[in-house]
Design a protein that fits this description.
The protein is mostly helical and 364 residues long. It has a single domain, classed as Amino acid/polyamine transporter I (Up-down Bundle). The longest helix has 33 residues.
Amino acid sequence: MKDSRHITVIQAATILASTIIGVGILTLPLSAVQAADSGAPLVTFAGMLLALIGLIWITLLGMRFPKQSFVEYSEAILGKWFAWGGSALLIVFIGILTSLVAREFGEVVVTAILKQTPLEAIVLAMLLLVAFPSRKGIEIFSCIHYFYFPLLLVPGLLIIVLSFRNAEFINLEPIWGNNPSGFLLGILTLGTSFQGSFIMMMVIPAMRHPRKSLPAGVWGMLIAGVLYVMVVIASVSVFGADEIKLTLWPTLELAKMTSLPANILERLDALFLIAWVITVFTSLFSCYYFTVYAISKLFRLADQRMLSFFMLPIIFTLAVLPGNVVQLYQIIQIAGQAGLLFTIAYPGLLLFVAIVRKKKGIKE
């Protein structure tokens, strides 16, 4: 498929932000508190900075090879066979990530909303929703993200701001946490929440001005990072670190406790779940689209449309493999930390080798 270069800086930033903000926002305060207790906001911010390093490397690679996909410039940097192996492993990781996002979405829906609906039906329905638009070009992909972004951002900010009425900010002290020894490991854990930066590998070649991809990426990361840090601050200040450790989905509980002034709407969890479904759709859409896009580039296919439904049963099978929610979150933690190799270490390696070998793509 021939990609048109039409994505603007604002669209690139919204694509990145809506890819990062996803299903994991429900468990984000729990992961942060397990890592650093009351220092949860600080470790979340540090995790964003870690992911920002990988994002900078990805954008610098894209600016260095503005007319090539990551599969193509990987081959120019490392050679065909080494690059083919690295690209294939990255595709496998994103495919697994897609299945985990779909499964986590299904677990939340059957637990909190549609309790009588089979898990498999929920997972399959969401995968079908992202498979259909994955047949289209990247211009449709960017428009979908651009349209839905305000619908996920505004309700989230509204709930966070209103929740501060119930906050006790003494719960945030000490700001560095009670267990500094787990802070460094916590940075790695929280850095996995920002791994959506991989989407810039696909977005940059389709940008009107690839040289502006760095500010677009930084803005997208900052939007997602500020929202995540605010969610953690609100959750810890309202519940306290000890209570959050006993809650599987603290952000959902936060929405249940929040209401509009004058009790116009006593609970905002319904509004939050609507916004949350949109965030899951956009992040799952990015993962699924990237998987079929990357496979088409790896095998030099002229069209990615047939792959959209070819990948569906594979992703679905991977999604239903975990036996229960406990096993699911264990796999998510392992896959997330392993994924740092593909979103930070691998782009860093490519950039280093490209500089040493003085490899550059065709100028804009």
